[in-house]
Amino acid sequence: MSDETSDDTFDPPVGDHATDAADVDGTEFELDDEQLDMIAQAEREMSEARSRLAEVPAEVVITNHVMGLYELAAIHLSASPPDLRQAVLAIDAVACLVDGLGDRLGEDARTMQDALANNRLAFVQIKGQVDAPSD
Question: If you write DSSP's letter for every residue of 26-54 in order, what string do you get?
Fold first, then answer.
């Protein structure tokens, strides 16, 4: 397994804006003082958010994302009609994290495994109902 995600050399640019900028299509435009202030404020807020996030253990952040994917699967499974294609993608994403990381998820690893099992069971039950012939 490679360690590509631990590249410490990435440092996004912050706070060094010129008054000229280019649009997506390359068209030049000038930013006024209010826009520059808004950009500077957004950069400060992003920097503060990054600092706060750096203080949180990675397993807590990852567990939070797993639960978001779990909820995403549940939303697609409970839709009318259920969107099985979208649900299975979310379930597979949960599986990649939960099965792939295992006990590295910390004290919530077992809870994440149970959540994955619940998603999979719900998928099988709902797929069975969708595939069942109507009477």
Answer: S-EEE--HHHHHHHHHHHHHHHHHHHHHH
